[in-house]
């Protein structure tokens, strides 16, 4: 039976460190500032954004939230981002994705000052990560959090281990693959065109699922003893809880996979809370850099 990697507990450790370091920064007269921008009324996005703002306040940050109507024009959103770029009280800018269809996401992301891009989605930060310039990059929060969870089980050096990442998005799959490679794992990236995925997955010492398909990864896809990182967040109907009720599941069939894995992350309480904790860590890092101070390692 697998060890369960407790994302909530590790996230609390990260946040505790952020709080301590925020106090250190205060001695230099600096308060980390995070701006979260949300366009439209998607209920799931509202929940995530609210918990980001709550965490930021808990860390002692200056926290501002801009909630804009779904009809907001692309130019108006660009103007807001430029205003936040110029605001010295703001060290981190997060524009919640996805954006409404009439707004070009790429244009918005490339408008964010790379030095305030705490999501790590700007070309500059993607390039830094891709070339191994990890000291200056902002690393996307979800894969960064997943790596900290992996570290608890496998350490920082993954030499000799094979990793399979299912999913190749710019937000999760690709940066995850780059981080695993930087940690010396031998990495394969799978996606919707991959042939015989179950057999490929079963070769992995480290299996990362970032697909968005509820419980797609079955128990017999898991190599005995493997470390399984489930990034998926899927809300599915739960009639057993009552009519119209839902529950969250990952991309991995947890009950089956935990019988074979050596260690596994749960959903909820796994990668999700780590994502928010790493957003705080990245914002703190940005404030340290702006102040000309060496940021702490996480
Ligand atoms: N825990 C957290 O903090 C976060 C969780 N998530 C969750 O992670 C999951 C992935 O998110 P994201 O990367 O944004 O999703 P995307 O939809 O952008 O990417 C999904 C990837 O999965 C691949 N895929 C789809 N179907 C299959 C299949 N049948 N077999 C193999 N690969 C497949 C796609 O392949 P192709 O490229 O060929 O289309 C694509 O590369 C979602 O559940 C999302 O909610 C996301 C962000 C943060
Ligand atoms: N610019 C941008 N950056 C993001 O990082 C970003 C984004 N857009 N858009 C959406 C995705 C998704 N995401 C999550 C964050 C926390 C949880 C989380 O805390 N989940 C809890 C459960 C929350 C619940 O109950 O719904 C858990 O897994 O335990 C989940 C998902 C960040 N994303």
From TrEMBL:
Keywords: Amino-acid biosynthesis, Histidine biosynthesis, Hydrolase, Methionine biosynthesis, Multifunctional enzyme, NADP, One-carbon metabolism, Oxidoreductase, Purine biosynthesis. It catalyses: (6R)-5,10-methenyltetrahydrofolate + H2O = (6R)-10-formyltetrahydrofolate + H(+); (6R)-5,10-methylene-5,6,7,8-tetrahydrofolate + NADP(+) = (6R)-5,10-methenyltetrahydrofolate + NADPH. Residues 140-288 form the Tetrahydrofolate dehydrogenase/cyclohydrolase NAD(P)-binding domain. NADP(+) binds at residues 167-169, 233. Transmembrane segments: none annotated. Residues 5-119 form the Tetrahydrofolate dehydrogenase/cyclohydrolase catalytic domain. It comes from the Bacteria. Its EC number is 1.5.1.5, 3.5.4.9. One of its GO terms (molecular function) is methylenetetrahydrofolate dehydrogenase (NADP+) activity. InterPro entries: Aminoacid_DH-like_N_sf, NAD(P)-bd_dom_sf, THF_DH/CycHdrlase, THF_DH/CycHdrlase_cat_dom, THF_DH/CycHdrlase_CS, THF_DH/CycHdrlase_NAD-bd_dom. PROSITE patterns: THF_DHG_CYH_2 (PS00767). Pathway: One-carbon metabolism; tetrahydrofolate interconversion. The keyword Protein biosynthesis does not apply. Homodimer. Belongs to the tetrahydrofolate dehydrogenase/cyclohydrolase family. Catalyzes the oxidation of 5,10-methylenetetrahydrofolate to 5,10-methenyltetrahydrofolate and then the hydrolysis of 5,10-methenyltetrahydrofolate to 10-formyltetrahydrofolate. This is Bifunctional protein FolD. It comes from Nitratireductor aquimarinus. The lineage of its organism: Bacteria, Pseudomonadati, Pseudomonadota, Alphaproteobacteria, Hyphomicrobiales.
